[in-house]
Each structure stands twice: as C-alpha cells, then as structure tokens.
Write a structure and sequence with these properties.
The structure holds two protein chains of two kinds. Chain A is α/β, with parallel strands linked by helices. Chain A has two domains: 262 residues, 3-Layer(bba) Sandwich (FAD/NAD(P)-binding domain), CATH 3.50.50; 141 residues, Rossmann fold. Chain A contains eleven helices and 15 strands. In chain A, strands 1, 2, 9, 10, 11, 12 and 15 form a seven-stranded mixed beta sheet that branches. In chain A, a hairpin with a 6-residue loop joins strand 10 and strand 11. In chain A, helix 3 packs across helix 9, helix 3 crosses helix 11 and helix 7 runs parallel beside helix 8. Chain B has three domains: 157 residues, FAD/NAD(P)-binding domain; 145 residues, D-Amino Acid Oxidase, Chain A, domain 2; 137 residues. Chain B has 15 helices and 22 strands. In chain B, helix 1 runs parallel beside helix 5, helix 1 crosses helix 8 and helix 12 packs antiparallel against helix 13. The C terminus of chain B is likely disordered. Classes of the chains: A alpha/beta, B alpha+beta. At the A-B interface, helix 2, strand 4, helix 5, strand 13 and helix 10 of A face helix 7, helix 12, helix 13, helix 14 and helix 15 of B. The structure holds flavin-adenine dinucleotide (2 copies). One flavin-adenine dinucleotide sits at the interface of chains A and B. The site of one flavin-adenine dinucleotide has 40 residues of chain B, from helix 1, strand 10, strand 13 and strand 18.
Chain lengths: 442, 543
C-alpha cells in the first residue's frame, strides 16, 4: 500500500445522495476524517429546492405554511417518523449549516425563514418548500405578494419565457394552468442563440452556454423586446451551472427586472449545481471522495468494531477501514434497497427491512391514492441512536448508522420532506456517531 | 315536451373492438349504412388487451378442432388482405422435460387431422435460432403463427368504413334498448361528454360488445348464458425471441410468448371473474406467469417487466364447467328470435384471429333481414393501409422521424422515439373527424408511454407540446397527465420489483415529490379549512 493513499478513517459514508452528502459534510465539520463512496444519487434529479416538511398528514394532503408547526404536528401524530425523532432546533441548525456550506461553494440560497415558500413548477403546479435557491426566489416573492392579505392585489405582471426545443418546459402551459391564480402571467418563446438548428435542447447545455457572455447577451437581447410592462421574468432552470450567481445577476441587470428560474423535470440543472457545490465543499473540508466506486462488501471486526469496506469501480479495487459507517444508500432508485418478487432486502448487508407482508400490498391500485404506497414506507428501522436493527431488534453493529430515505416509516415523496429527512437525520446520526467515537477513545 | 335528439341508420353496431369495426367495414363494403357506438374508444375492451397472436390453430387442435380449423383458415386470409398489420414471425411449440409425452407424440397427428401444417424441428437447431429457449426443451414443432397489431386492424377497418359513410360515436354508451313487440324501436345512447341521451333508430341492431354482450342484451330483456374469464399478460423490457413461442401441452397458464417490436408479451392466465368493472392484473397473476413461462424461457426469471394488463374473455355455455379453458373459444352468433326479437343479433366470443369471419356471419344475418343481397367481400378485398392508423407499430414513428428529421420536430417520447409530428398527425386527424382528442386517445393510437418510463417522462413532454400548440385552454392538460399516467400505473403495479420498481419510484419522486400532482386532486379540494386545533391559519393552499 502506498503511503499517499490513506485507507483508514473515522467515518465511511456510503452514498452520495442528499443524505450521504449531508452526513459527510457534518462529519468533516466535527473534525472527523471521512471517506465518502458513491455517485450522485437522487441529487442529480433534485430541483434545488430543499423541502423540510410541507404536507402532513400526507393522506389528507394538508399543506403547511410553517414547517416547524408541521414538525410539531408530526411529532404528536407520527412519533415514529424519522423527522419526528430529531429535535427542531437541531433541524434548524443542520439546515443552516448545510445552506451556509453551499453558499460558500457558490450556490446561494435565500436566507432561511421560519416559513415555507411557494414556488412555480414547470408543469404549472405550486410547490411548497423551505430552502429556495436565490435564482428562484423572485418567483416565490411574487407569489407571496399575490397571497398577501391586505395589499390592493394587482398581481405582478410576469413574463414567462421558454426556448423552442426544450421539450419539458412550455411557458404557455404555466401561464394557462395558473391563469386563475395569477392573472398577470404572459408567455413568450425564443430560439436559443446558437442552437437554432438543434431539435432537442437539454437544459444543461443551455446552462453551460449561458456562462459565456456572448450567448448571455444575445439571449437577453431576444427577451428584452418581449418585456412590455412585465415586472419580473420567469425562465426554465438554465441560468448557468457553477456560475449561476453571475449569470442570474447579468439577466437581472440586462432586463432591469427581477428574474427567477422555474424548476423543471430532470435531467436537472439545479441537481448539477448542487452536486458541483457539494463536491467543492467536500474537497475543501478534506473529505475523500470515491465518486465512481461502490461498496461491494462491508464487514465489521467483532472485537474492535472496525469496519472494512471493499470497493468496486476503483482500478484494482480498494479496501478501506473505518471506525464508524453511515449507510446513506437510499431506496430502490438509489440502490440501498433491492426488491425481487419475494420481498425487499437491504443491498449491502442484507439487514432486515421493515416491509408489508406481501407484494400485493406494496402499491395502491391508484397511483395518486392519497394514502400513498405502503412500499414507500418500508425501510430500515433503527434504535434511538440511528443504528439499524438486526433480526433480534438490536443494533446490527455498534457503529453502523443509517440516514436518509432508506429509513422506514416515512414517505418523503408525499410529505415533501426529502432534503429535510436527509439533512436532519444525517445531523442527528452524526451527533450520535461522534459521541460513540469519543466514548470509545475515552 | 321536446323530443330527444335522434339519429337514423340501417344498422347500429354496439362495440368498437375488432369484431364491431370489422362488421362496420363489412357492411359498408356491402353498401349498408351503419353507425358504431363505443362506450370508450376503439379496442378499449379485449381487443386492446390480448397477445396479438394470429393463431395458426395449433393451440386448439386437441381440445377444440373446429376453432382450430377456423383459426387456420382465417389466419391465412388475414395474412393476404391485412398484411400491413401482420408480422409473419412463425411460431414454435416447445415441450420441456416433464411435459406430457403422450401429448407431444399426438400433437402432429392432431394438427394433421385439422389440416394445420407443422414441422418437427431439431431441438438444437431451434435453440440456435431462438437462444432464449430452455436447455431442457425436449421437442419443438414449427407452425404458421404470426403476430397481428389489433389496433392497426381496428383503426384501419373503421377508417375504411367511415370513408364509405359509416359513422363512429366514441365515448358513447348504449344505456337502453327500447323494445316494442318483436322489434327494438330505438337504442338510447349517452355521451361520456355529458348532454342529453340520443335515440338511434336502426332497422337492425348488432350487439358486438364482447364480454359486455350479456349486459347489452339484457337491456332488451334477452338473456345470454355467459361467464367471464380474465387473462393477464406481461410485457418484458427487451425482446426474448423473434418467433411466437407456445408451450407444447394442453392450453394452460403462462404458455405463450409473443414478439412485439422491441419487447415480448408473455401470458396468459385464466381466472373466472363475476364482474367486468374491476379487471386488473394482480401480483399473483404475474407470479404465476413468470413461474410457468420460465420453464420454457429461463431468462424470464430475472427479466425486467415493464407492464401487465388484463382482458376478459366472454365464455359462452354452461357456467358450471370447472375449468374456464375447457369452455369453447369458438364464437356465437345469436339471432334472439327465441327471445322474441327480430332485429337484434349478438356476435361474441371467438378470437381476434376470427374477427373477420365473425363479422361476415353477423353481416350475412343482418343483410338477410334487411333484404340486402350483396355478398361479403372482406375475404378478398385488401384492407387499405391508412397512415394515421399505423403509429402503434413499433419503430415506425422513429423511422419516419429519422427520414424527415426537420429541426422543429422534436422527440417527445424517448423510449419509443415518438416525435411531435406524430402527435400532431394523430390529434389533427381526430379533430378533423370532429372529435376532442385526449392524451389517452394518443396513447391508444401511438407508442407514447409504452416504453420503460411508462409515460412518466413523455406525458410531461407531450402535454407541454400540446399546450404550446394551443390544444388546452385550462388546467385540463394536467388532469390528462394524471389520467394517462394513472392508466399506465394500473398496468404496472403487478410487476413492480427490481429495476422497474426503481424506475417507478423515480417517477413518483418526479410527479409527487417534485410536482405535487397528487395535491391537485380531491385530497386538497376536500381538505378545506381543517377543524383541527393545530390548524395553520396562514396557510393558503394552492388549488
Ligand atoms: C425526481 C426527484 C425530484 C426531487 N425533488 C426534490 C425536491 O423538490 N425537494 C427536495 O427536497 N428533494 C428532492 N429530491 C431529492 C430527495 O430529497 C432525495 O433524493 C431523497 O431524499 C433521497 O436521498 P438519499 O440521499 O437518501 O438517497 P439517494 O439520493 O437515492 O442516494 C443514494 C446514494 O447511495 C449510493 N449507493 C447505493 N448503494 C451503494 C453502494 N453499494 N456503494 C456505494 N454507494 C451506494 C448511490 O450511488 C447514491 O449516491 C428529488 C429527488 C428526485 C429523484
Ligand atoms: C388475455 C387475452 C388474450 C387473448 N389473446 C388472443 C390472441 O392472442 N389471439 C386471438 O386471436 N385472440 C385472443 N384473445 C381473444 C380476443 O382478444 C377477443 O376475442 C377479441 O378481442 C374480441 O373482440 P370483440 O370486438 O368481440 O370484443 P371487445 O374487444 O371486448 O369489444 C367490445 C367493445 O364493446 C364496448 N362496449 C361494451 N358495452 C358497451 C355499451 N353498453 N355501449 C357501447 N359500447 C360498449 C366495449 O367498450 C368494447 O370496446 C385474447 C383475449 C384475452 C382476454
């Protein structure tokens, strides 16, 4: 083994989705040496919006303006829900820490409030969320104004612009579906400069193109004549990748009105931004990343409790050891859970998965059934210290922790709490993990 | 009192499956004026929920020789007159270790007696040509099975009938048959779009409502002895074999694998059901098919499935028979004269393969009653190919798109390569015919939503495209995404494990996690101001 390549760590985080990223960040923050294994995960699909908790109870579809009021209700009514097991003050701190780190890496979020915000989506729904990227916040502010109780309520005139060939985004669709709610919406379509002959446009290509000043100026020049008396402009999420802040500012300066992005179907530019920013954060804090690797095998030494991880996807393979392990491998699309006709198992260690009795009970007959699908509440159950349980109901290993969407008793898709679940449980588990390590080292 | 709106015609056809549409064409070709009413859409019943196997007849040689011979003769006719809708793949009958040796030995004799051609194929040769076949295969026979696109068949039959004056009323349900003496004086129909019922006065009425034929006949007080058998089919992610593969044994569960473009269809099951309003594939159906078919095709054990669907076969005859497969698969033409009616006929049962013959027999009866002497010509008259009716063919949209690649013609469905121009063509054709097209109509007439994403991505893109065209003026387009994806979902839940479960989860993350589509429905509307003390007074939930 070469001296350069360190192979033993305080913490190994398996997974690089929102939960794995948060866990690695919080580990580094606490001064623990950390290796993180796994590729982008759900982050690549993410909208950039950081949901905390917007809907509760999910079966009633009730939306909350205060995520903390929603958390309080959740704690009363669903105490087993992983988010209900983290105290609200820690959640707040965890979010602040996460968003601050993103900001340092160039991905700015609007200051976190006590309340949820409403954001337009590309299909014309309004999404309730918590953390809003700066590039999207002007839209949320305008919606606030619409809702404000005692303003004279002339809705702000807003121009929505789309690009021919960007198939998942029709400005006309948004303006049409929200016409009742927001009468001042109008729409226009332009050819994206330099892509006139390209049939299908991809948001990421446009975002990269807008990082060059020339394309940016030409795009602004095409939009300007359409402005009329518009007081703000909405666009699909194409305002740059790593240089989003600069591109967004240039659009606002060039158009002379606030500009906001509207989250769109994946493949997702905000996801790429998040990933980029998180990687910057990780390397700045000394987290070792094995981006293309996956953990093939994980074993614990029964005497020392030390974990050994065998990695695939690294030339020649790699073996690392860690004093503690965080399992943030996600659900079915993340690969943390594996399902066949007979049932669900945890993919790496075969940990017992809390799940419905038979496959017939996994899914409702109606996709949008308000009670959600039982399979989405399957997952790992843990003790109070976030350690997954074995068959006998005891922690499987003293220093194995599980965080994020792999946890049982939650349905983040219906409760709109994906990022919240990831960030809050990563924070709480890292606290326990640090305590354990300190306890062990004396 | 104002009398309700009415329509007059010579023949009213109830049901727009392969039988009803073939009948409309047959009558139109004989110069008879007809109206076809369909409660849903073309092929919404069993005709859109089958294997698409143009039977050589070999499947039925032992149990139902008459049906076998009908299939054999009709298969040959359809291959001549409707070649554009048929892929003449050929088929194998395959026995594996443990299968009944007696049946294997007798099979060629049964076939010979029914006049059905078979050829024994050396197992090694068969496995070289179809590598997915099990190494435990012990006997293989080649037969003239083929695959047929029932959508193309029905849509083209209806298109020709309409070009000759026949009228089609989609989304219109027959709700009453007004009887006077020995005649049905009028048929009362109701449009799903709402509005007043319409009375249709027809000299003759043909009930071609498939499994619903019993319900329809009962509206005239005419009882039909019918039971229902549900059959489930699974669609694989990739194609396993280029030929039809049948299990060489008496018909049973999970014994047919069909090629379907880039996928295979495998089925089926046979379960008695009592009602028609709740037909859906179950996880038990899926398990049964996978377990049975795996014996012929071991790769199915680990195959990814993208969809399941179920249809109902009407079984005529004694409801007491224990095994629904032993009830005849032959068809029935009922003249209802014993029920005291002289202008109602019911044509039901049978198979996709025999739909032309069923239509011929029904048309003969109707023409005799009407005094029309022109003979049936559908056995010899080619079915004209109609471009708008061929978008269900796998790969066709893609080929057209490659050929004419215009820069403003973007792919909306990436799994199946369906471009905007195909969507435009289908929508425009429906509009030209006076219809209000929906995304679900598009799904039936094209391959949109039929790939691995099962509509999750392409429904979003297609609706954006339609909004941009100005097809939707309200929030209605969003409801269409939900309808369409919801329908695709019902076909998925029985096969959600492995990779397809991961895909479905991603789709839910998108549609619910990100877009919150479930919050637009009833849940939120119903919620109103909550009475609970923990109410969040500042909340103004979005519509
Ligand atoms: C379509 C979509 C839209 C979304 N929109 C929002 C939104 O609007 N708001 C919001 O807050 N959140 C959103 N999210 C993100 C969501 O919050 C997170 O994806 C979710 O919480 C799951 O995160 P996770 O980290 O638990 O799992 P995942 O993101 O699934 O990550 C699992 C990780 O584990 C890794 N892994 C698995 N097995 C191994 C192994 N053996 N070895 C190494 N690594 C392994 C995977 O590579 C992956 O990196 C969205 C996600 C999707 C998919
Ligand atoms: C699982 C399965 C697999 C099969 N596989 C094959 C195969 O591989 N090869 C083969 O040859 N055959 C096969 N069949 C048989 C074949 O599908 C049917 O025989 C054929 O489709 C019947 O067509 P139809 O037009 O008579 O009935 P249907 O297609 O059922 O049409 C009846 C129509 O009537 C409409 N209707 C009902 N009530 C009303 C009303 N009140 N008002 C207006 N309209 C009404 C319905 O909406 C429906 O569209 C299969 C059947 C099943 C169930």
């Amino acid at each position: 083994m070469t001296g350069e390549r360190r192979n033993s760590f305080d913490v190994a985080v398996i997974g690089a989705g929102m939960a794995g990223m948060a866990a690695a960040l919080f580990a580094a923050q606490r001064g623990l040496s950390c290796i993180q294994v796994g590729s982008g995960g759900g982050v690549l699909f993410a909208s950039g919006l950081l949901d905390l908790l917007a809907v509760h109870p999910a079966a009633e579809g009730r939306q909350w303006q205060s995520p903390f009021a929603a958390l309080a209700a959740l704690a009363r009514e669903q105490p087993d829900h992983p988010l209900a097991r983290v105290d609200p003050a820690s959640i707040r701190t965890a979010f602040e820490t996460f968003v601050t780190a993103l900001g340092e890496a160039g991905l700015a979020y609007a200051p976190l409030d006590e309340r949820n915000r409403k954001v337009l989506t590309s299909i014309g729904t309004l999404k309730t969320t918590f953390g809003v990227p700066l590039s999207m916040v002007a839209g949320a502010n305008a919606l606030d104004a619409l809702d404000a109780p005692n303003t004279p309520n002339t809705p702000p005139r807003c121009l929505l612009v789309d690009f021919r060939g960007l198939r998942e985004f029709s400005a006309r669709q948004i303006a049409t579906t929200l016409a009742d709610r927001w009468p001042g919406l109008c729409h226009g379509r332009i050819e994206f400069p330099g892509f006139e002959d390209v049939p299908e446009l991809y948001a990421a290509h446009l975002a990269r193109a807008l990082e060059t000043g020339e394309t940016r100026d030409r795009t602004i020049a095409l939009i300007r004549p359409m402005l009329g008396d518009a007081q703000l402009v909405g666009l699909p999420t194409v305002l740059g990748l790593g240089r989003c802040r600069e591109v967004h500012a240039a659009f606002e300066a060039g158009l002379g009105v606030p500009v906001f992005e509207i989250p769109t179907m994946p493949t997702s530019v905000p996801g790429l931004r998040l990933l980029g920013a998180l990687e910057t954060v990780m390397s700045a804090r000394g987290v070792r990343r094995r981006r293309l690797a996956s953990v093939r095998a994980l074993a614990f030494d029964a005497n020392t409790g030390t974990a050994t991880l065998d990695l695939d996807g690294v030339p020649g393979g790699e073996r690392v050891s860690a004093r503690a392990v965080v399992l943030a491998t996600g659900r079915f699309s993340g690969r943390g859970l594996t399902a066949d006709r007979g049932g669900v198992r945890e993919s790496i260690l075969g940990l017992p998965v809390h799940q419905p009795a038979s496959r017939e009970a996994w899914h409702q007959r109606d996709f949008l059934d308000p009670s959600g699908h039982a399979i989405n509440r399957a997952g790992l159950r843990t003790d109070d210290a976030w350690r997954p349980l074995d068959m006998s109901g005891k922690p499987a290993w003293p220093r194995l922790f599980a965080v994020g969407s792999i946890l049982a008793d939650q349905d983040w898709m219906r409760s709109k709490c994906g990022s919240g679940l990831a960030i809050a449980t990563a924070w709480a588990a890292m606290q326990q993990l640090a305590d354990q390590l300190h306890g062990n080292t004396g | 009192m104002i009398s309700p709106p009415r329509i007059q015609t010579q023949v009213l056809i109830i049901g727009g499956g392969v039988t009803g549409t073939a009948l409309a064409r047959d009558l139109a070709l004989r110069g008879v004026d007809c109206v076809l009413v369909e409660k849903d859409d073309i092929n919404a019943g069993a005709s859109g929920r089958n294997h698409g196997l143009l039977h050589s007849g070999a499947r039925y040689v032992a149990g139902d020789r008459e049906a076998a011979m009908e299939c054999c003769a009709e298969g040959e006719i359809l291959k001549r007159v409707a070649a554009q809708a048929i892929h003449d793949s050929g088929g194998y009958f395959v026995a594996v270790e443990g299968d009944d040796e007696r049946y294997i030995a007798d099979f060629p004799l049964y076939c010979a007696r029914a006049g059905i051609g078979t050829r024994a194929v050396d197992v090694a040769t068969a496995r070289a040509l179809e590598p997915a076949l099990s190494d435990r295969a012990i006997a293989v026979f080649e037969v003239a099975d083929a695959s047929i696109d029932p959508f193309q068949l029905s849509l083209e039959s209806m298109a020709q009938a309409r070009s000759l004056g026949a009228r089609l009323m989609r989304r219109t349900r027959v709700v009453g048959l007004e009887r006077e003496g020995r005649l049905i004086r009028a048929v009362r129909v109701r449009s799903m779009a709402g509005g007043e019922d319409v009375r249709i006065e027809a000299a003759q009425v043909v009930n071609a409502a498939g499994a619903w034929a019993r319900e329809v006949a009962l509206l005239a007080g005419a009882p039909i002895d019918m039971t229902y058998s549900q059959g489930t089919l699974l669609v694989t992610h990739t194609r396993l074999a280029s030929r039809v593969v049948n299990r060489l044994r008496r018909p049973g569960n999970g014994d047919i694998l069909m090629p379907g473009g880039t996928v295979s269809l495998v089925g089926t099951t046979s379960t008695r059901v009592d009602a028609l309003d709740d037909i859906h594939p179950t996880t038990a159906d899926a398990d049964l098919i996978v377990e049975e078919a795996t014996r012929m095709l071991p790769a199915l054990a680990t195959m990814r499935f993208i969809r399941a669907f179920a249809g109902v076969r009407p079984l005529l005859g004694s409801p007491g028979a224990a095994d629904s497969r032993s009830v005849s698969r032959g068809f029935a033409l009922i003249d209802h004269e014993d029920h005291g009616l002289d202008n109602l006929a019911t044509i039901t049962g049978g198979k996709l393969t025999t739909c032309r013959l069923m239509a011929e027999r029904a048309a003969d009866l109707v023409c005799r009653r009407l005094g029309v002497t022109r003979p049936c010509v559908t056995a010899t008259t080619p079915l004209p190919a109609v471009p708008e009716c061929e978008w269900t063919e796998p790969g066709r949209s893609a080929r057209e798109w490659m050929r004419s690649h215009a820069s403003d013609d973007t792919l909306l469905c990436e799994c199946e390569m369906v471009p905007g121009s195909t969507v435009d063509a289908i929508f425009d054709a429906l509009r030209a015919a006076g219809d209000t097209p929906t995304l679900t109509d598009l799904g039936l007439r094209s391959r949109v939503g039929k790939g691995p994403c099962q509509g999750g991505f392409c429904a979003v893109r297609t609706v954006a495209h339609l909004y941009q065209r100005g097809d939707f003026h309200t929030q209605h387009g969003l409801a269409e995404i939900l309808d369409f994806f919801g329908e695709r979902w019902r076909g998925q839940r029985a096969i959600l494990w492995g990779e397809q479960l991961a895909q479905a989860e991603l789709m839910e993350a998108l549609h619910c996690g990100l877009f919150g589509e479930e919050l637009r429905g009833e849940g939120l509307r119903r919620a109103g101001p909550p009475a609970a003390p923990n109410a969040d007074p500042a909340d103004k939930s979005s519509p």
